Amino acid sequence: MHEIRSGTWRLAASLLLAGVVVAILAGLLHAESHDANDHEASFTAYANSDVWTAVHLAQFVGIALVCVGLVVLSFALDVPRGTQAWTARIGALAATTALGLYAALQAVDGVALKQAVDAWAASGEPEKAARFATAEGIRWLEWGMRSYQSFLLGTALILLGIVIAARRPVSRIIGLLMALSGLAYLAQGWIIGEVGFSAINSLPTLIGILATVIWTIWLAVSAWRMKGAVAVKAG
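RESULT FIELD:
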């Protein structure tokens, strides 16, 4: 058996839960159209949004907290050697890379796309088509970045979830729910890469949100109930 300190678990759980809450609240304020793949309707909604920059900054903060929380979680697992140690380290690396890609994604979506749709909305008829094409090109770049960011975050969740389920410092179900949310992110990444923000992404998105809310709350409760040190199975 191996002992780990509960303080690291509490920090990781707090970061993760705070990040999920911030990301969800920011998402509720995001300007939307009925069909996100209807670019004319979407761009009109985006151009009319007065809180676009703030919303995307808040979304970045939320995902940053989640990714940092996953890295801290890899330290909390404290696997000294073996396959589980490498699994946790690769999960932490995936989370770190996902954060960097998400920062670039928000620069494209939160800044470049907003400027492009504002220019399109304000332009006269002779240049409107060109402005629209520019905004659409940025939108497609957003698809690609969002797709690969989802792949990386999903991979981090799956790998760290597997280690939690194997070592059982907390309920194994938490690890399994983490892995489920990771699979949902992988599905989202594939769909976005293929067809963009299609309605067929609604199911994996819903599964991912529900699973993530459940396991982050459960993990936070479990972490704050820990006292001193926790004994776990050796890696």
